[in-house]
Design goal:
- By secondary structure, the protein is mainly α.
- It has a domain of 39 residues.
- It contains two helices and no strands.
- The longest helix is centred in the middle third of the chain and has 18 residues.
- The mean pLDDT is 79.
Length: 66
């Protein structure tokens, strides 16, 4: 799996060389994240998001009738 992510990181860097400044910055950021995932034992991409304190407001809007 490490080779998979490191390959994606290199591909993002290669694309960044030919991209405009905005896209280059985003691609290089993406490459950093892929590099972090490619390292064994890295916590990046393995954490579980914190639970919601309250349910989404959508559940409470309206009278409940369609």
């Amino acid at each position: 799996m490490e080779e998979f992510y490191s390959g994606f990181a290199q591909r993002a860097r290669d694309l960044a060389e030919k991209a405009d400044p905005f896209t280059r910055r985003r691609l290089l950021d993406l490459a950093k994240r892929y590099d972090a995932k490619s390292r064994p034992g890295s916590p990046v991409g393995r954490s579980i998001p914190p639970p919601r304190a309250t349910p989404p407001a959508v559940l409470f809007s309206g009278s409940g009738e369609i």
